[in-house]
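idk why but the lab printer keeps eating my pages so im just putting this in chat instead. protein + guanosine-5'-triphosphate:
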Amino acid sequence: MTEQTIPVTVLSGTLGAGKTTTLNHVLRESDDRDLAVLVNDMGEVNVDADLVAESSDISTEEEELVELSNGCICCELRGDLLDAIGGLTRNRDFDAIVVESTGVAEPLPVAQTLTLGFDQSDLDPTEFYEETGIEPLENCHLDTAVTVVDTHQFHEAMQSDEILDDDGTKKHLGDLLVEQVEFCDVLLLNKCDLVDEATLTEIEDTLEILQPRAEIIRTTHGRVDVDDIIETGRFDFEEASRSAGWIQELQEPHESAEEEHGVTSFVFEAQRPFHPERFAELLDAFPENVVRSKGHFWLAGREEMALMLNVAGRSIRVAPAGNWIATLPPEEREAQFEAYPELEEKWDEQWGDRGSQLVLIGTEMDHESIREHLELCLLTDQEMNADWDTFEDRFPTFEIPDEDEATEADAPEQDGQEEIGLAD
Ligand SMILES: Nc1nc2c(ncn2[C@@H]2O[C@H](COP(=O)(O)OP(=O)(O)OP(=O)(O)O)[C@@H](O)[C@H]2O)c(=O)[nH]1
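predcted complex ->
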């Protein structure tokens, strides 16, 4: 992006991770920068904005500090976010803008809004402008996506069953945490004072494998070098969308070496379908040391559509991953082969591209044992010849989509994709 436009930093992180603390630190340390701040809070009373006003030296004149309440900038306030930034920058130039998201916000849609709104993406923004009624803002660019992690509660959050209600949209805490970690440029491991060194390095190892591209910085009370999160020039939408560890792992599968704290990853691949009941039982008792698993799979009896497995901590979700290429008319199939030449290499004469490819990331995982358990869920030779429709299948059923969605497992999730928990 051009250097003349105003760099925007977005701070994400779960509730209480330390976003406001970090923001206040940045404000205190930025005497030489003219900063504008935009705080999104879901409550009636915007406590965060009050804190910002209280402990920072900037005046709270409207043009420098904007609160967006009663909604979330990753969903219903997307247009308002851009309006607010437009309002801030219309008559004044700032050195940088910092946006503090709510604890339930997903960074990807916020980044999408900003890159489209700043006309900073290769995507065609016409539909977006029509939907939101906003004008592109050409005087800003999304510069850095920062995620603040509560290091002290990281393990707890990953093992938690807590469901967050984002104005009607239910979200699992572990899911949200993983989404925030997987989509960012800088990861602040905050609250380091509450965690011993061994735990810290273990979490660092885990985060590095979940998000290999981000710079990981340890902080206490959000005390970060301001230049590490403001005007870094690190943000790139395409790169950020593809930076998650599980995507990297699928692109270049390798059995990762055992780290000091036993954080590893591997890819499980199979060209036979899973038995629906055996695989459901495995997911019901999924090993707790797997912190993340993602990829597509083939369930016997579902020969039209690939399913997507999405495990983040204790959250296990299954979603449609699009039709198998093998079900497409020949000309469309050819187009897919051209776009993804590697598809042809794995093509099976009888089953085409049907198969499973799952990335598993975890701590102290026994790869062999997990592999064996997964293999035991595959159909046996005898079952391969049985009538697959007679197998008990308690996975959710999904409508076959009209549009051809990419079926390769490393495709980023489609916006608006319905995801349903197996246990629900
Ligand atoms: N011990 C310790 N406490 C911290 C640290 N950083 C923040 N806190 C405290 O954690 C609490 C939450 O911090 P906030 O900065 O309000 O967190 P937040 O992410 O803005 O929270 P929400 O706006 O509710 O999502 C506050 O009481 C902070 O003082 C840290 O590094 N160590």
